[in-house]
Amino acid sequence: MQTIQPQTKPSDCNSMIGCSEAMLDIFDQIGRVAATDATVLILGESGTGKELVARAIHDRSNRSEGPYSAINMAAVPKTLVESELFGHTKGSFTGAGTDRPGRFEACHGGTLFIDEIGDLELTSQAKLLRVLEDHRITPIGSNDGKQVDVRVLAATSRNLDQMIGDGSFREDLYYRLNVVALRIPPLRQRQGDIPLLARHFLEMSCWTNHRELLGPDAELWRFLQNYQWPGNVRQLRNCIESMVVLAKGPTLTIDDLPAMVRRAPDASRSFFEIPEGYTLADIERVVVGQTLRHFSGRRTEAAESLGISIRTLQRKLKRWETDDAGLNLSEGVYCASDRYAFATSG
Ligand SMILES: Nc1ncnc2c1ncn2[C@@H]1O[C@H](COP(=O)(O)OP(=O)(O)OP(=O)(O)O)[C@@H](O)[C@H]1O
Ligand SMILES: [Mg+2]
Questions:
Q1: Pairwise CA distance, residues 332 & 289, whole Å
Q2: Domain ranges, residue 77
Q3: Ligand 2 centroid vs 115 CA: distance in angstroms?
Q4: Mean pLDDT (whole number) for 314-329
């Protein structure tokens, strides 16, 4: 196993890593939208890398020499949002001691990333829409509009369609922002990225913490790849950093996992490995067997969980019973047979 301690500092601390088809597609889209001034709406669960995507678009655009600023709508008090975005004049409200430019003005010639756009109140949404349409801002307390040349990127982890439905997000603003939508899938849907990301974070953490490690053992690798990562890439990164800092030996094992991850219900989820040469029919039997075992043989619940009718399930069981006596599905007990390799993580 290769020792993980880079001789030189891993260069791209903030580079985006990915080799799954989904991420290669995102990289391709970043390349294409970067060359334009289109507004981009970046969607994805928390920790999927929305901020990294915004930064990557700016860095690859012809505005890369211009300013870049990120503002998080969930972190700015509601009363200050408009002043923060559009600026204010001296005396326009209590505490406004001087004229102050807002983010739009500060980003003239560059890119403004508006994070958690779903947290913007309806009145501010209307004002933002006007700015996006007219490319003019009017600071609070001023009567004069100012022309601004700013590319806007926005992100949210909330469901904007649902918010439009319940009237908390303006449909017209949604369409204005959604000229291009980049949807980053959760990490559990692109498990192929996990080894690459894990290795990258290991190298980074070993470098910053001056540690020399052999890396994770096979069991831990398997765990990392099969865990569902509800906190996405951020959780994987934090998990690895914590393991590197607290490692007890030269090799990382399951025992080095942070307690939160080790004890999560996910850790005991079982999964199966599909040996080479298995047909779809073989896999179907494994899945049905495992589901029946999960429901202790209760066919109605198993059928419901599998999304098939009880009659279909019974038909399958009957057929397999005659086909293969070794697979005792009728009692809902999976008889370990070397034809099917199950592995349980954690
Ligand atoms: N593809 C990736 N390659 C390398 N690092 C990544 C990748 N995706 C995310 N990260 C890292 O994961 C962490 C979370 O990423 P980021 O802040 O961009 O997520 P986010 O979607 O904006 O999350 P939130 O919705 O909570 O703001 C960061 O440390 C980031 O560097
Ligand atoms: Mg973010």
A1: 7
A2: 21-187
A3: 6
A4: 70
> What does residue 112 show for φ and ψ, rounded to 5 degrees?
-115, 125
Give the pLDDT band (50/70/90) at residue 9.
Answer: low
Using the predicted structure, report yes or no on whether residue 2 has a pLDDT greater than 70.
no
What is the helix (H) or strand (E) element at residue 114, kind and residue range?
Answer: strand 111-115
> Does residue 36 sit in the same domain as residue 175?
yes
Give domain status of residue 248, yes or no: yes
Residue 4 lies in a domain: no
287 and 150 in a common domain: no
The answer on 248 and 200 residing in a single domain is yes
Q: How far is CA 163 from CA 40, 76, 78, in A?
A: 19, 20, 18
For residues 140-151, b (16+ Cβ closer than 10 Å) or e, as one string? Answer: beeeeebebebb
Q: Is the CB of 234 under 6 A from ligand 1?
A: yes
Cα 110 to middle of ligand 1, angstroms:
22
Q: What is the pLDDT of residues 245-280, one digit of tens each?
A: 999 888 999 999 998 888 765 544 444 556 667 788
Q: How far does residue 53's CA lie from ligand 1's centre (Å)?
A: 9
Indicate whether residue 36 lines ligand 1 (CB < 6 A).
Answer: no
Of all ligands present, the nearest one to the C-alpha of 184 is 1
* 270, two tokens: 């079982």
Q: Give the domain-ending residue among 171, 187, 203.
A: 187
Tokens of 132: 């996006």
Total domain count, the chain: 3
